[in-house]
Amino acid sequence: MQYSSKIIEQAVDAFTQLPGVGKKTALRYVLHLIKQNSDDASQLSNIIQLLKTDLKFCVSCHNICEDETCEVCSNSSRDKSIICVVQDYRDVMAIESTGLFRGQYHVLGGLISPMEGIGPGQLNIETLVNRAGAGEVKEVILALNATMEGETTSFYIYRKLAPLNVDLSAIARGIAVGDELEYADEATLGKSITNRMPFSTFFTVK
Q1: Whether the model pTM is above 0.90
Q2: CB 171, CB 142: distance < 8 Å
Q3: What are phi and psi of 17, to 5 degrees?
Q4: Which secondary structure element, helix H or strand E, spans residue 105, and what is its range?
Q5: pLDDT tens digits, one per residue of 65-105
Q6: CATH code of the region 61-201
Q7: What secondary structure does DSSP assign to 161-186, as a single string?
Q8: Domain ranges of the chain
Q9: CATH number, domain 6-53, options 3.40.50.300, 1.10.8.420, 3.40.1390.10, 3.30.43.10
Q10: How far apart are CA 127 and CA 104, in angstroms?
Q11: Are the C-beta atoms of 107 and 92 separated by less than 8 Å?
């Protein structure tokens, strides 16, 4: 595609780095921004900059937040005896939207995937073990994607937490195998959390 300006071409290339954005969609975004007034364009630019400068990771659960501790961890009404383990902050948003979970979270920051070179040491697993072993936690819910990577990660965490005095459960299989939590509808995801089962029922562990 021929562009009338190098700046437009560079802007299109920048937008195509976003997930699911092709060149035609990127060009529509660029042309839309050109039509916007300077104040709107500046506001968008400032917000994008804030994403990189003002966001932090919660020191307790690793969720994205603006302070040292996220709103969930700092909320005294949340049940600190239950931790729901998720892949990333998008899953926290999905579960929170159901309004059915009142415990706390632990964001792993990914899943174990040897094909992608991601091992347990690159995830927030040791901090989960430390939280679970501190004495206050009674149940850990594994709410990971029903994929090979999700199951591998769940099994690894199961083995790490087995020596601790905590109940380990997993969300019910309302989420189809191969599906990701963030794409599940709220009703299905809510029921999967509510109807969670002991993790040992999913695997025969020797």
Answers
A1: no
A2: yes
A3: -75, -15
A4: strand 104-107
A5: 999 999 999 999 999 999 999 999 999 998 999 888 999 99
A6: 3.40.1360.10
A7: HTTSS-EEEE--TTSPTT--GGGS-H
A8: 6-53, 61-201
A9: 1.10.8.420
A10: 14
A11: yes
